[in-house]
Amino acid sequence: MAKRVAVVLAGCGVFDGSEVHEASAVLVHLSREGAQAEVYAPNIPQMHVVDHAKGQPTPEQRNVLVESARIARGNIKDLAKLDVKELDALIIPGGFGVAKNLSTWATQGKNCSISKEVEDVLRAFHAAHKPIGLCCISPVLAAKLFPGCEVTVGHDTECEQWPYAKTAEAMKELGCRHVNSHVTEVHVDARNRLVTTSAFMCNAPIHEIHDGIGKMVREVLRLA
What we know:
two-stranded antiparallel ribbon, Rossmann fold, globular, ElbB, GAL3A protein, 7-stranded mixed sheet, alpha/beta, Class_I_gatase-like
């Protein structure tokens, strides 16, 4: 039987939701591997809405579930209805929505809180020893919830290629082990069944980001 994988989205768009290319890559690679993706998002207001052409917030108000449905082509479920017993794995793509809508990392860093629904889902998969795939900024969720876990967001030294490397330092302060890796690589924490890759934390060609996400998906399915 095909593996059933929950894909949790955080809106639609890199600056205020899920990174569209990352979410698409996850869905493409799951399809290629013969897995069944089931897309979820929390039915909550976005922290704010960003005009992606100008890079500036707007006075609009939008809903995370409604916006995520754009990526899912309407085939989406409320995260509150997710039943871990019916699923084999969980994947959360990146994008600032993870740090703004699924958590408060964008404003509070390592002192953030995580949305109760998102925390409950992550803890349920972890407790059931079912694999969790996280890319880009989403490994911060694991760093916050599972002290001692091993993750990667790429590199821990800031430079032009790695503009968000300070994230790794904040994660280390939470007690997790950060493993430096290239954008096409993944890190597997076998004990916690976590698979992470850096994706757009790196200024890299989009095909390399797509390839790294593909490796993450395959490792998640191998563990499922």
